Amino acid sequence: MSEDEFEPRLGRIRARGGKKGRRYLGRVAAAAARAGTVTGVRNRRFDGSRIGRGAATARLLWGRDRHAGLRARRAVVKTRLVRLGTKGLSGATAHLRYIQRDGVTREGEPGALYSAERDVADGKAFLERQAGDRHQFRFIVSAEDGGEYSDLKHLIRRLMTQAERDLGTRLDWVAVDHFNTAHPHSHIMLRGVDDRGENLIIAREYIAQGLRERAAELVGLDLGPRTDIEIEARLRLDVDADRLTTIDRRLIRDADAEHVVAAVDCDPLQQSLRAGRLQKLGAMGLAEDLGGGRWRLDERLELTLREIGERGDIIRAMQRDLTEKKLDRSERQRSLFDPRKVDVSPIVGRVVKRGLSDEIHDRHYLLVDGVDGRTHRIDIGRGDATEPTPEGSIVRIIPRPAVVRDADRTVDAVARANGGRYSIDLHLRHDPSATQAFAETHVRRLEAMRRLTGGAERRPDGSWTIADDHLDRAATFEARQTRDRPVNVEMMSSIPLGRMPRADAATWLDRTLMADSGGNADTTIGDAGFGGEVRRAQRQRQQWLIDQDLADNRDGIIRYRANLLATLQRRELLRVANQLSDEIGLAFAETKSGDRIEGVLRRRIDLSSGRFALVEKSREFTLVPWRPMLERELGRRVGGVLRDSGVNWQIERDRSGPTIS
Questions:
Q1: Is 71 helix (H, G, I), strand (E, B) or coil?
Q2: CA–CA distance, 390 with 350 (Å, rounded to integer)
Q3: Quick one: pLDDT at residue 150?
Q4: What is the mean pLDDT of the chain?
Q5: What's the pTM?
């Protein structure tokens, strides 16, 4: 090819289509892995863990093998890298507010924010400095013997000073010490920029190992090596522990390829510890006695013990929550909700508490007093993936299945029939019965997948290039989504149960009564606990409905008016609309099914009958059913058609903007 024939194509480095359509960095990593062969011996596979500052220091620290000695002090460092931006910065604000909450000091006072130079740091100024940052690091540092410290500030400042030396740059950070748990710990927020204002890239090896080694090193200098008495006392506690222990790790390390390990040890103390622990594991069904001092360990020993330990921690935390909320529940009335079970039923109940189960990864849980008479502890995943759930509200929780959706199969089928391409026009030609709005939901699905898993590239003409393994990528995407949000939390009522019996509005109680009378209730209401409260409230509500001529009692059988819910909802809407009309100075326009809705989406209105969107025109406004995806459209012009099932929204990003159906 001559120079005249060469025609450069500008744009980001990438490949297109099929098997070669991998991102550039992935291709570099694969090439580095293939190149890692020297004199016939394959080197450590390239995984990017040594890219960034501190990699060499981390390798040196790890090479010491400090933890081989029982006398060494230990420390735990948990890390999270948070992408910032508009949403991320609001999350950073919420996290800063959380770590400074009440009750975290020894005296039960709010947490005190400090920095390298100041005992009282300015959190607002710290957040303002991050306005243009790409990312932020969050650490939790916990020393095994942290209770020996009267104040953790000196330890954290020395740790961050040492980190500055290891990373070769000044660090901008703030921290808060917490003493409200059995293990005192410190929360550190670190800006993701170096002293030159460039993005701070820390090697994964340093994050995973180096910082922990530095923390343990400093604790060892402060408290000295562990004494024989300390070591023996801690190890003897491990013998009967229902969790993964130091003894278990040593047994797993000493086991052969058949998972067989000997109970004998040259050290008398270690011999008694191993023998006692193996007896405990045998009683738990995790080890088998082969005779002659030989035992076969369960293949999943480490994973099972970790799960048992986590479950024990959850049960203890749940008991603390119940005690704090003054709820007396027996062990039989407590339940840990597992969405992975095939036959799991929906949970309906009152929110007792929403808390953090994993502070560093922002994973939340709900404590729900169920209508079935039991109190359930439910992992709901990342906090920003679920709407706020105030205490006292009524929720319905169902597992979120991690399965490939019909939309993914449709996109794959259209692409296979059209040379690996997908578009709305191709979709409509492939399936003439499909509508434009239905096809656009598939495009939004592709947009969401592209950001997380790739495999789908949007072309300038609006069509998409679909990878051959699109369904596999869809399964990976769903698995990630389920990990972040394992359950769907549906808000049934934002008002507490006590206000429902005499509310002049359509309430959750009315819907349960109608479902019971129609025989289509999907949840059984028990007679104990919150279920008993619901039963009593239902009887009070029935009497109020009879007094309002919305129901009648014939020979002990309660019959409800056919339009009960619509009548109650309209009463509340008109009452609230009159109040809003006086507030904003616009007339209220009532809508009915089939009406066109147009205007600016102003805000969400929470009523007893449910949540509604306030859509404002120049001279009037209306109230229509709310959808969660409308949260990001506040202040925009919207349009749509009101149906019995809700509103088919048209968001006016451009003249041919997508619909939300």
A1: coil
A2: 10
A3: 87
A4: 84
A5: 0.72
